Amino acid sequence: MLAQANAARLLKTLRQSQAQTLRQQALEDPQDFIRRATQQGYSLTQESLPDQLGELTEEDLAGIYNPGVGPRRHLWRK
User: Fold this and answer.
1) pTM, rounded to two decimals
2) How far apart are CA 10 and CA 64, in angstroms?
3) pLDDT tens digits for the chain (78 residues)?
4) Which of 1, 22, 75, 77 is 20 to 30 A (C-alpha) from 68?
């Protein structure tokens, strides 16, 4: 059980780290991020991008940067 708890904690930390990296990339090149997000159906503005990034989930951010992968919410544990 301890190994599962540690693995779950590690996975959560990695997901948060990846989301933070994607948010940082979006802030470094906001025009590219807004273009990508617009193609995915999001309506973002450069002026309020930092606030809007905080509202996007980890899955939403990953989907904007890698649109070839569908929403991760549909995956079910077997």
Assistant:
1) 0.72
2) 24
3) 788 888 889 888 988 888 899 999 999 999 999 999 999 889 999 998 999 998 998 888 888 888 775 555 555 555
4) 77
